[in-house]
Specification:
Elements: H1 8-18, H2 35-53, H3 57-62, E1 66-67, E2 72-73, H4 76-87, H5 106-119, H6 121-140, H7 143-155, E3 158-163, E4 179-182, E5 188-198, E6 207-216, E7 226-232, E8 234-236, E9 242-244, E10 247-252, E11 263-268, E12 281-285, H8 292-328, H9 351-383, H10 387-423, H11 434-442, H12 451-462, H13 465-483, H14 490-510, H15 516-520, H16 523-546, H17 552-568, H18 571-581, H19 585-588
Parallel strand pairs: 3-6, 4-6
Antiparallel strand pairs: 1-2, 4-5, 5-11, 5-12, 6-7, 7-12, 8-9, 10-11
Helix pairs in contact: 2-5, 4-6, 5-6, 5-8, 5-9, 6-7, 6-8, 8-9, 8-10, 8-11, 9-10, 9-16, 9-17, 10-11, 10-12, 10-13, 10-16, 12-16, 13-14, 14-16, 14-18, 16-17, 16-18
Length: 594
């Protein structure tokens, strides 16, 4: 039986036939790698994810962490899985060799980590945050901070978090009130609370490295007054021991999904613990004061792509489990074959079941293509020799990041919904994994910025910055695919071309008089329309490689592309029409009528 985590055949297609990831080995950073090493690490990832992560996915969902007022308790399989992950070297997969890393391309590492996200999204959240935490400190921390915190993070001895939201300020970071008081010896003392902190407290390692946004006493209001601090759970002592920092777990949040990872309310500086006998949690400034949000965006953007990748992985594994179920579950007979004495047919023989499976396939495989395309852009933005080409890759990644986060979170959740439907009545019971996949994936339209916030980011920032250079670049990439499409795909290329042209016109119309409130009142609709156009572009490129090839794999690619162009791309027409009208209903609506 083939794996129901992800399709290795599809990953090979995306990495090697489409993205030509082996071309990256021409660059000095990746010269010690080859397709053989890429294939080997993918194989290790698939086996490790199946053996150590998927095996406790249901157990950790049914036995979520609990807090007894003193410490957090969780099932032992989580620690075992994370230890195995650390031993694999994947925590430092993309990191420089001089820090103990493997220097894998982000594209390959993202595909590897998708196996773990498909196997167990909650347990994989611990290393996802730790890797992003370490990468931020490598980029913006001091040499001492890298030595003291990054190396243990990459070895799996420490774990990392990101502490932004507060009970009164979720996504509104301008309203952060956690304060930092200079301590006189280069340290700061932090006071405040942070909410919704994944991995915020546990006993899985020796320490937890909290990256905390706070406002130094006297700093200006708003996001420009935020600084970033390392606040470890434990502090080293002069005698080589350790003492508890004044970071206390105030409680666990109990979510509908991702139940295996602790989600916490943390209190800083409330006197639960008093390091060196003084009040306040000890924190160490990262970089310069008042640049905290700038630094934190390094981790936030990595986490946003990680959330999109996790959503794609959950949609993908749900689709594969539904496909396997549909092939083996007999039910009913086809129209025209009503003889009750005749055998029932597998439900995959019913056209409506095939519709649901094909839709889920188009969402899951389209989302995985988007995620890996973004990872390839990240690689190109760091290793291409031509500065202009590096800048172009970075600009395109900036434009695509809100789509990478949000499109899989919306449409792979829909794939999970369809996977439940394929299972019928069994789908919403705990006898099958698909109901948990749906609950887990439902968190992703909220994780790392809500769906609506990324609409504001796309329309309000990404497509207008640098006089629209990012949108121009995206459009140019799509038109290149349109112009080079094989003859067999010219009708699809024409359909995409018409929507791309319309997108350019509508975007200009939205901003024609500079009324930001009106333009952004339908930003979510804009995000969804652009997302579908982008996925259609990626399906056109994949279909172009499948044309003329033989075998069921390529036939499946063409079928999924055909579905997307036939059933999905036309959705954007009504969205673009509404956007072009600059409808004021949501802006002018009296909230008292709701």
């Amino acid at each position: 039986m083939s794996s129901t985590l992800l399709s290795r055949r599809d990953l090979d297609f995306l990495l090697h036939e489409w993205l030509n990831v082996s071309d990256l080995t021409k660059h000095p950073r990746f010269r010690d790698h080859s397709r053989d090493t890429f294939d080997a690490v993918l194989e290790v990832s698939e086996k490790l994810a199946a053996r150590e992560f998927r095996t406790h996915n249901r157990t950790s969902d049914l036995n979520e962490p609990h807090f007894d007022g003193t410490r957090v308790h969780m099932i032992p399989e989580v620690r075992q899985a994370l230890s195995a992950f650390a031993e694999s070297g994947l925590l430092a997969g993309t990191v420089d060799e001089d820090l103990g890393g493997i220097q894998l391309p982000h594209t390959v590492h993202r595909a590897c980590f998708a196996y773990f996200q498909a196997a167990n999204i909650a347990t994989s959240g611990y290393p996802m945050l730790s890797m992003a935490n370490a990468n931020l400190l490598i980029e913006h921390g001091s040499a001492d901070q890298v030595r003291e915190y990054v190396i243990p993070l990459l070895e799996g001895r420490f774990f990392g978090t990101m502490c932004l939201s507060e009970p009164h300020a979720g996504s509104s970071l301008a309203d952060v009130t956690t304060r930092a008081r200079p301590d006189g010896d280069g340290r700061h003392r932090l006071f405040g609370q942070k909410m919704w902190i994944s991995g915020g407290d546990h006993e899985l390692g020796e320490n937890i490295v909290h990256l905390v946004l706070a406002r130094v006493d006297g700093a200006k209001p708003g996001v420009k007054g935020l600084s970033l601090f390392i606040v470890p759970k434990f502090l080293g002592t002069d005698d080589g021991g350790r003492e508890r920092n004044d970071v206390a777990l105030a409680g666990l949040n109990h979510k509908m999904g991702w139940r295996g990872i602790t989600n916490t309310l943390l209190s800083f500086g409330e006197g639960s613990f008093r390091p060196t006998g003084e009040s306040g949690a000890v924190g160490y400034l990262v970089g310069e004061e008042n640049r905290g949000l700038e630094y934190m965006f390094h981790m936030m953007n990595e986490a946003r792509i990680g959330v999109g990748a996790g959503a794609a992985a959950l949609g993908y594994t749900g689709y594969l489990e539904a496909l396997e179920y549909a092939r083996t579950r007999p039910q009913g007979r086809l129209p025209g074959h009503k003889d009750p004495s005749s055998p029932q047919v597998p439900i995959i023989e019913h056209p409506d079941v095939r519709r649901m499976l094909l839709a889920a396939k188009s969402y899951a495989e389209g989302a995985m293509a988007l995620v890996l395309y973004a990872a390839k852009l990240l690689d190109e933005s760091t290793v291409l020799e031509d500065p202009a080409a590096r800048a172009e890759a970075g600009r395109l990644l900036d434009v695509l990041t809100p789509i990478v986060k949000s499109w899989p979170s919306q449409w792979c959740l829909r794939a999970n919904d369809l996977s439940i439907q394929v299972h019928g009545g069994a789908g919403y019971t705990r006898d099958h994994n698909v109901e948990q996949f749906y609950r887990d994936n439902r968190l992703n339209p909220i994780h790392e910025g809500t769906h609506g916030i990324h609409g504001l980011d796309l329309l309000g920032r990404k497509v207008v910055m640098d006089s629209g250079a990012g949108l121009d670049l995206l459009v140019a990439r799509m038109r290149q695919a349109i112009d080079t499409a094989p003859d067999d795909l010219i009708p699809w290329a024409g359909q995409l071309s018409a929507r791309v042209d319309r997108l350019v016109t509508v975007t200009a119309a939205l901003w024609r008089d500079g009324d930001a409130e009106l333009a952004l009142s339908n930003a979510t609709l804009y995000l969804e329309a652009v997302g579908h156009i982008v996925i259609a572009w990626l399906w056109l490129e994949q279909a172009g490689l499948a044309v003329g090839e033989t075998g069921t794999f390529y036939a499946g690619k063409l079928a999924a592309a055909r579905y997307f162009f036939t059933y999905e791309l036309p959705r954007v027409d009504a969205q673009l029409d509404l956007l072009a009208e600059r409808d004021r209903m949501l802006l002018d609506l009296d909230p008292h009528v709701l």
